[in-house]
Amino acid sequence: MSQQELFVLFIVGYLSEARTAAGTIIIRRLFRLLIIILLLLLLLIIIVIMIIIMIIIMIINMIIIMIIIMIIVMIIIMIIIMIIVMIIIMIIIIIIILIIIILIIIIIIIIIIIIIIIIIIIIIIIIIIIIIIIIIIIMIIINIIIIIIIIIIIFFFCHILRVPNKIK
Fold first, then answer.
1. pTM of this prediction?
2. Fewer Cβ atoms within 10 A, N terminus or C terminus of the chain?
């Protein structure tokens, strides 16, 4: 007997409420068939639920993996930015130190030049003073010599003028 015939007999037997042995066998077979179909449906529902759960778990795993990857990428980007900022700060510090050193060197050079100029001016003033003193000394000496010569000439003339007086 095919399944369609069994189903028809089941409906006919149920409608006529035939309680024969053949009817009970048919009913049992149909119940078994219904139970098998229900079990298969239940199995199918379980499989569908399992597939949905697996898909949800996979989606959650993908989201977690993406979040972890994003966190790692952000950490790497932050580290790179920190390194770049540190390098820029170091370069700025080095440039400032170099500028300070150059300024100190320029100030030292200016101070040395000023000291040299002051020393040269002092030396020139000393030389001028020495020259003036020498000129004054020479003038004094010349004056003394001139005075001595004049005195000698005067004495000489006086002597010459006295001698004839004595002769007379």
1. 0.42
2. C
